[in-house]
Amino acid sequence: MQDLLKKSAIEQSEAIKNKEVSAVELTQATIERIKSIDEKLGAYNSLTEDTALETAKKVDEKVAKGEELPLLAGVPLALKDNMNLIGSRTTASSKILENFVSPYNATVTQKLLENLVPIVGKANLDEFAMGSSNENSAFKKVHNPWNLNKVPGGSSGGSAASVASCESTLALGSDTGGSIRLPASFCGIVGMKPTYGKVSRYGLIAFASSLDQIGPFSRTVEDSAALLEVISGYDEHDSTSLKLPVENYRNSLNNDIKGMKIGVVKEFTQEGLSPDVEKAMQNAIDTYKSLGAEIVEISLPNIKHSIGIYYILATAECSSNLARFDGVRYGHRNQDANNLLDMYCKSRSEGFGPEVKRRIMLGTYALSSGYYDAYYKKAQQMRRVVTEDFLKAFSQVDALISPTCPNTAFDLGSKTEDPLAMYLTDIMTIGANLAGIPAISIPAGFDTDGMPIGLQIMTPQLTEAKLFNISYKFEQANDYYKKLANI
Ligand code: GLN
Q1: What would the pLDDT profile of 313-369 be if each residue is shown by its tens digit?
Q2: For this structure, is 162 an active site residue?
């Protein structure tokens, strides 16, 4: 059974179909693994054992009747704890929502349940998805399964640590500035952010709505493609959802990439990379050359502004989105306030952690009268300029590659006192959110301490099929993905 937990989602669903294992057995084994090792990792805020087993039972009933199974039926999955699952707590790892029980399902949750994917628990994250190390959770830190003294990356650190340690086979994360790709890179797995609008945000606790996208975590590219097929599609509950048919990405995974043009982002490979990351990048270039792709150096001249743009737009949007947590309708309410204003102030002061407060203050400032044009409007204009850089690049190449992060996972506690250093870890991932394009991080080697390195690949909007194809070819030409964290 321990061996089966390490297999890919596609392999596990085959095993269920062929009656080598029942979905209930697989789910139970997954939950047992969580119970035996999660004390060390801190990847889960809560378990949803009953829901998971109920779903698994339905899978087994279908198998017994000889009925066809939906894609990924019976494969255990962790849901980031900022997505609603009816009847379970959705905390966003914040005190303010500590006891909030979801009254409805997020659209992604609904789709998972319809596909009979057992949801085993709610994965830890940085409070309201704000952070890069998962040290901003109000409840507990997440540890990296490859080295417990290192961060797993954030903000979807629990989701990534869960998949990397085989506490689940799949997970969902949300990515506003890199929160799927960075932890995927630090934990040595596949993490993918779809085109903005591909996956419904209904039932995801909003951080910065113009940037937020939900996406899959897995240990293989094929599983990533399959999970995106399950969760994507038009949803009338999300006004930014794209009215497009669900695609089959798995059909084109193995297409020949001979003759494709792959751009290496100049600004991300010139300086500041750790030597091991630089080596991995060179290896990626060599791999693509050997697969017949043409490598071209591409400049994104304005990408250097992306962190500045992001920290104005994301904070502005979050200051507005988080205004609803006022002690009246959701979550924590201070009990000894004298009047309404006092109740708002005390509830919010007690409920939000320091990083969330910093973001709300920065965002409120950027939106305030007299500063709006200088900050918010300027940042909007610059977002367009960065997007144009990408459009220009994609008129010359099929895809862009870079490291996902200039370095591998850092030590717990090493950046907590320096928010700017923490913000800089997203330097290579934020661009894709600003431009709304799909981007992925796939395993691309290890540093001298054995910590995983991630390769980021980006393609134009709505070209997920090509993105998965280019990723799959790299994955299959190397065997980094086969090595699992030893925990
Ligand atoms: N690390 C970034 C931040 O703190 C990105 C977070 C995310 O993508 N949710 O804002």
Answers
A1: 999 999 999 999 999 988 899 999 999 999 999 999 999 999 999 999 999 999 998
A2: no
How many angstroms is it from 257 CA to the middle of ligand 1? Answer: 32
- Segment holding 261, helix H or strand E: strand 261-265
Q: 10 Å Cβ neighbour count for 334?
A: 16
Digit-coded pLDDT (tens) for 355-398 = 999 999 999 999 998 889 999 999 999 999 999 999 999 999 99
For ligand 1, what atom is nearest to the CA of residue 425?
A: 1
Between the CA of 47 and the centroid of ligand 1 the distance, in Å, is 25
Q: Is 80 a catalytic residue?
A: yes
The tokens of 269 are what? Answer: 């490979």
Does the pLDDT of residue 438 top 90, yes or no? yes
Q: Provide the pLDDT for residue 96.
A: 97
Residue with tokens 């890069």: 132
Rg (CA), the chain: 21
Find the 101 Cα to ligand 1 centroid distance in Å.
24
pLDDT recorded at residue 1: 84
Give the ligand 1 atom nearest the CA of 131: 4
| pLDDT for 350 | 97
- Within 8 A by CB and 6+ apart from 376, the residues are 312, 313, 316, 366, 367
Q: Is 155 assigned a catalytic role?
A: yes
Q: Which residues line ligand 1 (CB under 6 A)?
A: 129-132, 155, 175-179, 207, 314, 426
CA-nearest residue for atom 10, ligand 1, is 130
CB 150 within 8 A of CB 409: yes
Instruction: Kindly give the distance from the C-alpha atom of residue 41 to the centroid of ligand 1, in angstroms, as a whole number.
Output: 21
Residues facing residue 452 across a β-bridge: 446
Largest CA distance in the chain: 71
Catalytic residue (choose from 13, 155, 156, 224): 155
> What pLDDT, on the 0 to 100 scale, is given for residue 389?
98
Q: Which stretches does DSSP call E strand in 16-118?
A: 44-47, 77-80
Query: For the packed helices 464-477 and 221-231, what is the interaxial angle rounded to 10 degrees?
Result: 160
Instruction: Let me know: does 156 contact 376? Beta carbons within 8 Å.
Output: no
Q: Which of 156, 162, 168, 179 is catalytic?
A: 179
Which ligand 1 atom is nearest residue 359's CA?
Answer: 10
- How much is the pLDDT for 325? 96
Of 80, 141, 150, 466, catalytic? 80
Residue 95: how many CA atoms within 13 Å on its side-chain side?
16
Question: What would the pLDDT profile of 190-247 be if each residue is shown by its tens digit?
Answer: 999 999 999 999 999 999 999 999 999 999 999 999 999 999 999 999 999 999 999 9
